[in-house]
Amino acid sequence: MAHTITLKLQHAAREFAATDAIGFSLRGGVKYYDRQLKTPAFTNYQAVVFAKAGKQADFYRETLNEGAIVEIFGDSIKIDTYEGKNGQAIVLELNNAKLGFVESAKPTQGLQRLPQPVILPRQRSHPSPIPFDDGIPF
C-alpha cells in the first residue's frame, strides 16, 4: 500500500554518492497532539530520493533546502528504531521514495515573472479581434 507524507524540511537534504546516481536523504517530522500524554509530539519520517547527475540533481540541490515543503510518497513504510541523543528514537522510513511536489524556500534561478496580461476595454459595438503580438513568450 502506498504512503504519502508532506513535510517542511528543517535542514537541507543530505547528499551522498550512490553507484550510478546521487542520493538525497530527507528527514522531517509531523506535529500532533498525544492525547495520552496530553502534550504535543512528533512523528519522525525519513526518505531517500535518487537523481541522475546533471539537471535532475541540480534541481534537487537547489530546491531541497531548509524550509522547503516537500511531498514524498513511497511503496511501504519501515519502522526504524535506534538510540538517539535523548534516548530511543523511532523513525518511519518511506521505502522506494519519490518526490511528488516541492516548494523551495529559496527562489530558484531561471524562474522569471511573466508579463502581465493586457486587458482591452469593452466596446459597445461588435468587439474587434485581439491584435496578434509576436512579443508574447509562449
What does this structure look like?
By secondary structure, the chain is mostly beta strands. It has one domain (3-103): OB fold (Dihydrolipoamide Acetyltransferase, E2P) (Beta Barrel). It contains one helix and eight strands. The strands form two sheets. It has a five-stranded mixed sheet. A three-stranded antiparallel sheet has the order 1-5-8, with no helix packed on it. A hairpin with a 4-residue loop joins strand 3 and strand 4. The longest helix is centred in the middle third of the chain and has 9 residues, at 55-63. The protein starts with a strand and ends in a 35-residue tail after the last strand.
Concise description?
It comes from Candidatus Regiella insecticola. This protein is mainly β.
List keywords for this structure.
138 residues; OB fold (Dihydrolipoamide Acetyltransferase, E2P); 5-stranded mixed beta sheet; globular; 3-stranded antiparallel beta sheet; 7% helix; 48% strand; single chain; mainly beta; 1 helix
